[in-house]
Amino acid sequence: MRKKGKIVVGVVVAIVIVLLLVGPLSIWRWVPMLRKPAVAYKVGAIFAVTGPAAWLGTPERNTAKMIEQEVNKAGGINGHPLEIIIEDTVGDATRTVTAAKKLITKDEVLAIVGPSRSGTTMAVIPIVEEAKVPLVSCAAAESIVVPVKPWVFKTPQKDSDAAVKIYETMRERGISKTAIITATSGFGDQGRKQLKKLAPELEIEIVADETYGPDDTDMTAQLTKIKASEAQAVVNWSIVPGQVIVAKNMRQLGMKIPLFQSHGFGNIKYAQTAGEAGEGIIFPCGRLLAVDTLSDDHPQKEVLAKYKKEYEAKYEEDVSTFGGHAWDGLQLVIAALREVGPDREKIRDYLENTKNFVGTGGIFNFSPEDHSGLTKDAFEMLTVKNGKFVVLE
Amino acid sequence: MNLGDQLLQYLFTGITIGAIYGMVALGFNIIYSATGIINLAQGEFVMLGGMMMVYLTAIIKLPMVVSFFLSILIVTMIGAAFERAAIHPLKSPSVLTLIIITVAASILFKGGAMFAWGKHTFSLPPFSGEKPISVLGATILPQTLWILGIMGATVALLIFFFGFTLTGKAMRACAANRTAASLVGINVRTMVLLSFALSAGIGATAGIIITPIALMNYDRGTMLAVKGFSVAVLGGLGSNVGAVVAGFIIGIMESLGAGFISSGYKDAIALVVLLLVLFIRPSGLLGSRERAEFKKF
Amino acid sequence: MGKKNILSLLILAGVILALPLGLGNSYYLNVLVFVGIYSLITIGLSLLMGYTGQISLGHAAFFGLGAYTSGVLSTKFGVSPWLALLAAIFVTGGIAFLIGAPALKLKGHYLAMATLAFGYIVFIVFNQASSLTSGPSGFGQIPRFRLGNFLLRSDVHYYYLVWTLVIVVLLVSLNIIHSRVGRALRSIHEGELTANIMGVNTAKYKIQVFVLSAVYASLAGSLYAHFITFLNPTPFGFHFSIVLVAMVAVGGMASVWGAMIGAALLTLLPEYLRAFQDYDILIYGSILLVIMMFLPQGLFAGILGLIKKER
Fold it and tell me: I want to staple C58 with a disulfide (CB 3.0 to 4.6 A). Which of A281, B190, C115, C207 is the partner?
């Protein structure tokens, strides 16, 4: 028993030592000369770096680190170093709320970029509204900014705009009856709501409405039902792996009708994973993924090309629109800091009046009534051809 | 697509997914029979199998057949290592302790996979092409036939192992009565190790054969473990035949439920049936009543 | 109840009262509010798992039922939060009784599976019954508690509310444990057959403890809902049920104090691990593994035991 006791004591001591070095009780706090200079501009970032939404949070986190390095190499913001404090939500609302509280009250950040997802964003809205801290979310749901909340902004294009673009494209191709198949996740559910709401306005009839769990591995049952309906097209609203599995299942069932995806398809990896089943998928996307086919005088070309080049060089992986949302959010905040300095209220006012800001998602025009800043023209309809993303003709 | 064709399609889907659940359940059963432990990390073995295969074929670029067996071997060794490191040193642990340990292990496996291979979703090329085969009015993928075939082979091998080899019979003896088994000279500790290794291997096989259809990512293990556990319980813990049968039953029920009742509630349908079976016949469909009573909690 | 326990309760109350004065900012209080909320659940769970020896892999469902009932009633039907909390307790308790009666006849892993299935079904219902629960997207704007004209919104207020309730629940639970009922419960754990022969109505006691633990969880759920003011199904799934079981196992199963320690440890740990970014999941799993391997009776009992041995 002695030996076991020693091991346990050893482990406990080790844990205590580690805890003394990092975290809230860390000794660094008590040694002033070891603390960082207090003159830095602190911006908080809340991303789902691990967990079920890691495909969102990781490129966002990478982008944030890249921007921080770049800004500080160029001398900071008006001479002040930029410190982006990144918190991981693990895709969990409770942890997101705690992360927000920590950033606001302990780190005293000037603004927060994120969270990555709509559900977690809704959870932190009451907190930032009460604490009066500007929040620039990287989540898609329209309900984040409709109705407008004074301290809350978002950078991704609205899911409602995505649905509108999809329906408009359908009408152009003579499609009037569609099936929708969505995941029972926050993102999928929001998409489903928008699809159902906008269908009558754009004269599209939804003849089948199926759902599946975000972790499901097989959707042939739902697609079989759709195949038996009169649907002339299928709209899928989900993220990986669902969006790829739906494509593959459709191919398996020999379904020839076109498959539309949401803007959650915005990473070339998904097309690659889908393989042949990915050919012909149509989806709305920010122009980032088709930047090579953009004409040189397009206002977004320079920003997009630069971001793509730097991100891919630094992280050796394909750029995605999700990282772009973080880029937009952070650059907006940085621009504000440059203009008005470290004042939360002034930053908020500046954001609200930003016009013609060229971002990866589109060209932003904020106003007191519009905290999303983008219209449906921020979207380009892309399709998969020979395993690559090209603009739809 | 008429009703008959739809029904057939649902059946095919149900069989495909049911075979996978069945294999995961077999993994649960093997460990449970020999040790009384419910290994909630079983799903991670499946995930590791799929991910390892992707790694070996896509990054190291080994040929498919070599990668297949190598992946199974590697995950089998991981299972054995897990047993040695986390289970073997324990002295008469309570069942709850064991459950938590396997949960902790599954967290570690998941974390390890995340670091090793990243968070993306991966696919494998199907073993013999992607062209769907038309059967009457429905379609079936060639990969499904591979899944059924390999599962059949696995079950056959297990029947042979447990029924006709000395080691297999020794494991069954452990399952029946550990004290008696050790009294007749069976090294119980080795049997435990073997059961973990075997389970890991079967899990890995399941992971490899399902990835071409269902893809694989580091997070997939948990859901598979929950489904596999339900199937194992439905079939009767410890009954291998029960696991296979129950796998198909749950797979088909999910499929029919999604098709005819509601795609959103399909998981609930299978679970409600499971609960009803448990309330009416607590030892599962094919489980032994006595075994259920005597297995210590 | 025992002098030791009364003393411990008083010390706890004192620490709780004093802590906010020392801790400057509301981030720490925020975390401690969650520790308190989770403690409510784990105390109940430790009574169930530790004393009567019944396992539940679906307790997050009761937490969720409390949260959703409270949230939906107060948001969609304009019921006052306090009344909603009470209603939630009845609803959750009722459901616990309905599911407990047949389920608790099962043993061991079959019971585990039944509770797991139940938990999962509830989770699916939260996701699917969108007209009531707003489905996966969830709903917000849940009203906060009011005391007369005083709105309980800041972390400090909530901290006191939650921890007062924790102390009340501790009192109740300790009383149960040290009464005839408690001894009956323990006899069930030691050997149900024997307890039955001795005249203990095991079925009745098992169900009662199950319902009680569900009621505690419902209370915690309501507190959670009116604190975060936004609900979606994600926190109430299988993953959290496992975290709860881990909290009880790590802290100490047959001890309400251990349950609190477990809740505290597994809530504070991820906060500390923020500094490690992606590595936190590995560290979390490792700590869990090490504790279960070397101190299987939980930290509370384990460390006490070690101290006694070294003497």
Answer: C115
Q: Is the pTM of this model over 0.80?
A: yes
C46, C98, C113, C276: best to mutate for the B interface, most B CBs within 10 A: C113
Intra-chain end-to-end CA distance of chain A, in Å: 75
User: C52-64 pLDDT, tens per residue?
Assistant: 878 898 999 999 9
pLDDT band at B264 (very low <50, low <70, confident <90, very high): confident
As given in the structure block, the two tokens for residue B135 are 């059967």
Size of interface B-C (CB pairs under 8 A): 132
Question: Residue B104 is nearest to which of C103, C113, C288, comparing CB atoms?
Answer: C288
Of the candidates A304, A259, A347, A284, the residue with the CA atom closest to the CA atom of residue A77? A347
- Residue A318's pLDDT is 86
Q: Specify whether the CB–CB gap between C287 and C299 falls below 8 A.
A: no
Whether C281 contacts chain A with CB within 8 A: yes
User: Could you give all domains of chain B from N- to C-terminal order, each with its CATH number?
Assistant: 3-123+133-294 (1.10.3470)
Q: Which residue of B has its CA nearest to C287?
A: B104
Report yes or no: B41 and B103 within 8 Å, Cβ to Cβ: yes
Q: Is residue C285 part of a domain?
A: yes
Which tens digit of pLDDT belongs to each residue from B173-213? 887 777 888 888 888 888 889 999 999 999 999 999 989 88
Share of chain B above pLDDT 90, in %: 28
Looking at the predicted structure, is the pLDDT value of residue C36 above 60?
Answer: yes
CB-based contacts of A255, cutoff 8 Å, min separation 6: A223, A226, A227, A234
Cα distance between residue A56 and residue A49, in whole Å: 7
> What is the tens place of the pLDDT at every residue in A322-331?
999 999 999 9
**Does A340 fall in a domain?**
yes
Cis peptide before A147 (omega within 30 of 0): yes
| A391, two tokens | 């603009």
Chain position carrying tokens 């928008």? A194
ipTM for the predicted complex comes to 0.83
Tell me, what's the pLDDT at C178?
Answer: 85
Identify the bridge partners of residue A367 per DSSP, sorted by sequence position.
A370
CB–CB contact C230 A93 (8 Å): yes
Q: Examine residue C45 and state whether it is found in any structural domain, yes or no.
A: yes
Domain count, chain C: 1
- CATH number for the domain including A269? 3.40.50.2300
Mean per-residue pLDDT, C133-145:
85
Mutate to test the interface with C, among A7, A26, A88, A237 (most CBs of C within 10 A): A88
Flag residues of chain A having pLDDT under 50.
Answer: 1, 29-30, 32-35
CATH number assigned to the domain comprising residue C220 = 1.10.3470
Q: Which residues of B touch C288 (CB under 8 A)?
A: 100, 103-104, 107
What integer best gives the mean pLDDT of chain C?
86
- Looking at residue A363, what DSSP letter applies? E
Structure-model confidence comparison of residues C53 and C225, the more confident one:
C225
Query: Closest chain B residue to C295 measured between Cα atoms?
Result: B97
Q: How far apart are CA A77 and CA C260, in angstroms?
A: 46
The residue of chain B with its CA nearest to that of C103 is B279
Q: In terms of CA atoms, which chain B residue is nearest residue A267?
A: B120
Q: Please judge whether C274 and A87 are an interchain contact, meaning their C-beta atoms are less than 8 angstroms apart.
A: yes
| Any A CB within 8 A of B21 CB | no
